[in-house]
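Summary for the funding panel

The consortium committed to producing paired sequence-structure records for every protein in the target list. Below we show the first two records in order, beginning with the earlier of the two.
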Amino acid sequence: MRRTEETDRLDIWRRRQETAYGLIPYVMLAASGSLSVVVSRPAGRPLVAVAVLGGSAAVLLFWFVTLHPDWMGRADRRGRMVVFLVALLLIAAGLVLLDPLFGIFAWVGYLYSFAVLPGRWRLAGVTATALITATAQAGGPPVDRDSGLLWGILAVANIGLAGAVSWFSLVTERQNAHRKQIIDELADANRRLELTMRENDGLHAQLLVQAREAGVLDERQRLAREIHDTIAQGLAGIVTQLEAAERARDRRADWKRHADLALMLARESLTEARRSVRAIGPEPLEGSRLPEALAELVRRWSGVHEVAARLVTTGEAQPLHPEVEVTLLRVAQEALTNVAKHAAASRVGVTLSYMIDRVTLDVRDDGVGLPPDLGPERGTPGSESFGLTGMRQRIDRVDGGLTIESEPGVGTAISVTVPASADLDRASA
């Protein structure tokens, strides 16, 4: 990840600081030496001693600062740099005693006290440097009361000023370190965020693929249910009526009745097939409410299959979500189709009950019960016929429940319960 501008500025400042620490001591040593030789070198102060100490200072700086600049500020090299600072201050003190003009060079003690010593130890370094510079400013060490008073005033002033600067520098350094830590943490957080976003993009793409596949599967199941509940049931009814007509060919009245029923079922199946393709509601629910549509379904089923059937509606009828009404109508169709196929019943009762927050549909017959391969004793919806499986799928889509009870010789009862106010967007998700 690209580094922030704030981090770049801190790095630039640090590089400039290292360059200054490497050049300033040489400049100040040269300036002090030049002034000592050219401007004023008091008698009795050997030039050889000045040259030796000045050369020692130059060698010390060259070894520790020029050749090994990376030692400065490193914790594992701190001991060596403390030795360097002590030696540098001793050399500076010796030069100041030889000539106070070397107080210019002694000032570098402040630089390296900040750069080398950790934390509060810097105060010790700047205090020693302040005493050396105070001696240079006083013209040498005190020799009497007046010079001692002057030296003391200068020492206090230098120590106070250098100590304040050192303290503020320490506080600023801590703030910079804290700021850099925050910047590094933010950069790391941004890296993790970018990684998470890339992972989320991958997951999002995967979810889109899964959602697309689920949509395709859901649409296939919807079409399969519609085909089963309309075309397949209609064709089964047509086949039944044509078989009955074949058996009654010698009785013209019965033959015509069965043929007319087969024609009616064929027309209805064609209409339902077209409506399924257009994905609109079933014809019985268009222009009528659910109780009327169920009543018409029960009446026509009873007439086609010659089985007594009756619808009872309890509670106050209320409008339901269109998909809930379609579900209840299709469940009633499938239940009556199963009665016609398997039950051999003589009587069927259909009950539609409106309650405060639920609606139930019960279909009961007095037949022989469901075959073992279709009955609830098989235990799992996957072992049922496609009709019962489609029934469960429809009911699940509207957040409802299905119960099937069947006993040989007693009959079958199918009970469906759905919410009166179903959240179809949530239930279908």
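The next record, for a separate protein in the list, is shown here:
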Amino acid sequence: MPQGVILITIDVEDWFQVENFKPYISYEEWPSCELRVHSNVREILSLLANFGVKATFFVLGWLAERLPELVVDIHRAGHEVASHGFDHRLTFDLSSQALEKDLHRTKTILESLGVEVRGYRAPSFTVSRELLKLLRKTGHLYDSSLNTFRLHGRYGYLEGASDLPFKTTAGILEIPVSNLSWGKWVVPWGGGAYFRLLPTSVFIKGVRRILKNRGLYVFYFHPWEIDPNQPRVPASWGRRFRHYHNLAATKQKLKDFLAAFSGERFLTCSQYLELVEKGG
């Protein structure tokens, strides 16, 4: 297995498409919501370019249909474009037939824009054995939908799986997001709200420990997390806290994170897949 590697992954969804706000914003309202994702992605592309880092962008098909230039910009900047499903419906909420249609539809939309789609990440990490079989059937080569933190109510679960990449029985590579382990305890350390909540210095120390023990760190975040001026949704206090806390500081935290690991090896998920297949 390749050693000393960091994978930066971005789940490309807009502020109104997140799972926390589904009780407040219906799918029917999406077309009337302000699209802010493209300007946020442009900022991320600029930030990554400044550090010479290539990343994997898991893009919603719904956004790719409306903002094809978003996909083109990501691709032209030398990053990988992968699938995040069509409209962020949890895989658990779809029948097998509907899920297969969703996977095929999104892959087709993205590839019509001149990119090769090899990978997929399920909304809210809703991984399952059925999903992995359907990914293989629809021509995907890897998945990054496993989060081994078990105290989150929406995350999927694969019996016996660790947070190290492994070849699934479906024949594709699973690339889990990274977490810290203390004995039997798993502490979420892959990014997202956990990255925004923790002091940057503490988060970096945890990442260094993961790299030392695992040789690989997989990080994720969302474009809306660098956008403190996004519209406010009148959600419950807990949902608002998880979504809005520390947005104004996230861009600087990302800069500090990338600077701290500037000497490490950054790869896209597809590049990592190729290394694994070559035994590098």
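Regarding this second record: The radius of gyration is 17 Å. DSSP finds ten helices and eleven strands in the chain.
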